[in-house]
Amino acid sequence: MSALLRRIRLVHRRGEVRGALEDDFHHFRVALRHAEGKVSAIAGKALRHPYNLCPGALGQLRQLIGQPLSGDLTVVAGYSDRLKQCTHLYDLACLAIALAAGDAGARSYDVRVDDPAGDRPRAAQLRVDGRPALDWRLEGDIILSSGPFNGVSVRGAFRSYIDGADLPAETVIAATVLRRGIFISKGRFQHWGENLDAQRGGCHTLQPERIDDARLIVDSGRDFSHDPAALTRDDSDWLAVTADGFARPHGLAELDDPARP
After folding, report:
1. Neighbour tally for 222: CB within 10 Å
2. CA-closest candidate to residue 181, choices 17, 76, 24
3. Position 75 in a domain
4. What pTM did the predictor assign?
5. According to the model, what pLDDT value does residue 164 have?
């Protein structure tokens, strides 16, 4: 069955975290350095994006400089007004900060959200580091599962539930990653760019002062349903490590240089 596939890869070495995110509509990179428990530098790169104005959000990531490392994603997500950020760059940056706060050297998230098939509930699944982590069915906006999210809406009530529930930090991260994939999956069967005014204020590109200049980049999408191995394939060299650290040592500089691949 055809589905939205999204892969996020994060690698942490010697005070630097690099992350890559790719799905049908997006391909982003983020790198950050940290020292004394805080973010000391950060940069991003927009390799593929749905709107012409998306790369304008790259500079917004600098608002995270000086913020403390934390494995609590709900805390990290509050470091900046996410509506003024690129949603996906900011998600990736927050995940990078959470990874930097822990002991793991790498983490990967693989999302699969099936396309609609009649009235049957849609499957939404997440693998973390290659292992099954969440297996949901979606009946409209309601999650059906055997875990703690059964009966929870993926819309506004989801954040309220996360804030009030006593859940492990990694469970919160996993659920947040899968939920984002669910929203993005709608782009496969709802036309991008329709009714933009209803989304006014929803992200950096859609802020009132620039939404009228937002233009859809036609034919920028890809379908990875039958080639999941292609996701983040082009990021592998940039994420590669040796015994001494990253094989390509100038991660932030590469992101700041538009001529670099």
Report:
1. 17
2. 24
3. yes
4. 0.95
5. 86
